[in-house]
Amino acid sequence: MNIANTPETPYYAVIFTSVLSTATAEYTKMADEMEQLAKKQPGFLGIESARNELGITVSYWETEEAITQWKRNARHLFAQQRGKEEWYKQYQVRVCKVERAYRF
Amino acid sequence: MNIANTPETPYYAVIFTSVLSTATAEYTKMADEMEQLAKKQPGFLGIESARNELGITVSYWETEEAITQWKRNARHLFAQQRGKEEWYKQYQVRVCKVERAYRF
């Protein structure tokens, strides 16, 4: 996992913050599958994630429309439903416009 | 560390993604100090962080002006300089407007 190599601003970010209730092997498998699937979506720019007590995954997108399409992806909808029923104690999704960025 | 209890959108987020070159006790101490100091800044709304190979810290702010003021805080400027010289192999800062949010 590296820092995402995103283009010039503006672009969009989805900040997904979560607390797991149970971290099963099945969850890990589904999370990996979703990451691979997101990478194939139109408008995908990059993804970054880390987890301790809190999990944070930030995905980057060219447009808001690309985010909406990804949210509605059939396999992703299934994963979202399983997540609510089984894996997540709590989560928060924040959709953002990245206005400026700098790196070191 | 909990999911930040942020208000109705819009508000602002700073996504700070980093790779450490060396994780010393001194770094951990400074990171804790910066978190405590950020919490005292005007316009601070919350903070979330996690680290594996990649560290992700997202801080939330009422306005862009609050972010600018925090960036210029004297002790924070010192920490940024130490970070570049000693602790960070690489980092990326992204300043975002949070346009919509939903939770479970």
Kindly describe this structure.
Two copies of one chain form a homodimer. Chain A is built from three helices and four strands. Chain A has helices at 25-39, 64-72, 74-87, and strands at residues 11-20, 44-51, 55-61, 88-103. In chain A, helix 1 runs antiparallel to helix 3 (74-87). A four-stranded antiparallel sheet of chain A has the order 2-3-1-4. The model of chain A has no long low-confidence stretch (mean pLDDT 95). Helices cover 37% and strands 39% of the residues of chain A. Chains A and B meet through strand 1, strand 2, strand 3 and strand 4 of A and strand 1, strand 2, strand 3 and strand 4 of B.
In short, what is this structure?
With 104 residues, chain A is of the alpha+beta class. Chain A has helices at 25-39, 64-72, 74-87; strands spanning 11-20, 44-51, 55-61, 88-103.
Describe this protein with a few key phrases.
104 residues; globular; 3 helices; 39% strand; alpha+beta; 4 strands
Write the layout of secondary structure elements.
Two copies of one chain form a homodimer.
Chain A: E1 11-20, H1 25-39, E2 44-51, E3 55-61, H2 64-72, H3 74-87, E4 88-103
Antiparallel strand pairs in A: 1-3, 1-4, 2-3
Helix pairs in contact in A: 1-3
